[in-house]
Amino acid sequence: xxxxxxxxxxxxxxxxxxxxxxxxxxxxxxxxxxxxxxxxxxxxxxxxxxxxxxxxxxxxxxxxxxxxxxxxxxxxxxxxxxxxxxxxxxxxxxxxxxxxxxxxxxxxxxxxxxxxxxxxxxxxxxxxxxxxxxxxxxxxxxxxxxxxxxxxxxxxxxxxxxxxxxxxxxxxxxxxxxxxxxxxxxxxxxxxxxxxxxxxxxxxxxxxxxxxxxxxxxxxxxxxxxxxxxxxxxxxxxxxxxxxxxxxxxxxxxxxxxxxxxxxxxxxxxxxxxxxxxxxxxxxxxxxxxxxxxxxxxxxxxxxxxxxxxxxxxxxxxxxxxxxxxxxxxxxxxxxxxxxxxxxxxxxxxxxxxxxxxxxxxxxxxxxxxxxxxxxxxxxxxxxxxxxxxxxxxxxxxxxxxxxxxxxxxxxxxxxxxxxxxxxxxxxxxxxxxxxxxxxxx
Length: 442
Known about the structure:
By secondary structure, the protein is an alpha/beta fold. The protein has helices at residues 67-74, 88-101, 113-122, 141-146, 170-175, 182-188, 193-205, 217-226, 245-259, 271-279, 291-299, 334-344, 347-357, 370-373, 385-393, 405-422, 426-441; strands spanning 15-17, 24-26, 50-57, 78-85, 108-112, 157-169, 212-214, 282-288, 307-311, 319-326, 360-361. α8 (217-226) runs antiparallel to α16 (405-422), α9 (245-259) packs parallel to α16 (405-422) and α16 (405-422) packs antiparallel against α17.
């Protein structure tokens, strides 16, 4: 299944989202060769036929949207084979090894946003330059920058992004005496994540028995940090997570949530988290665009229409997640691979993927297409997700990425979970997190 496409505890996309507002149903991850060696591309044969290989992780949605078959119809001499690795944390080390040896690479390789900075800084020469192939201005500006070197080389074309929102249970809010209308909920948290915690205290006073206001304080933490330009690294490449204003704000809010018992203390995407959604004991979840599929899949049909989506707390937009498609410079079919990357990341194809699996486009041109612009989710009370996420996506700050962002975030999230589950004091948890990080990054 599409359980992980993650380097930061971010599990994503195990459901098909019919974004015209019809259904949300579970989907088994499929690929031509799951967890197999991604080599196998072939140069033109005597008849000019070419097999292009695409190596990715989790669920990029191309097969589900029928795009590989469509490309073959448009280009009968091109056959595309996808090699899927379920877990990005398995995929990436193997990908690095292939880059180092120059062997086993696919014609097109997926790159997770948490890895792209490391590759831009240390492996840019290993990739073909897409600057003359795609028009970077078509993408939201901060997305294009993430895969661009200081010299202007573009190593990857943006696929999806994760603009933020707030998913909440309308029925639980009503039972707790809170407003349930999405505009009213947005107004209650308009001041930011501090307001979100205040709303949690209101919820707790009359909370239905056995329920918790939020699933995970670490998810809220990630949302807070993601709204800042400087997160774990400064523009000069120095790790600043110990002094980062965004990290401090997120940490303090997470500690407050744990102290006030506003959180279920669940590690997202693990079995207890899935069970809580299935039992209906969680009232709110910090929601990047891809999270809706997770909630719908694990909460199930019983709670269809009881969930809703409001705009993210505060005035500062945030992004959590996203990936890229890159073309290894030493591939057998670089020119044809570049053409396929350009086509897969064009507005029409990104809109088709959004309709098929619910991941939000990074190409701005897709936002005006009906599959995106008019998209609603029936499961979430017909929430206008196309409108909500497109508005958010275009004002997200250009975050400074660092080579070890994922490791830093994972270490901090682990200790937030310890505050929630074990009652670890904030100072002790912070010390443990920084010691673990420093062992890795120095």
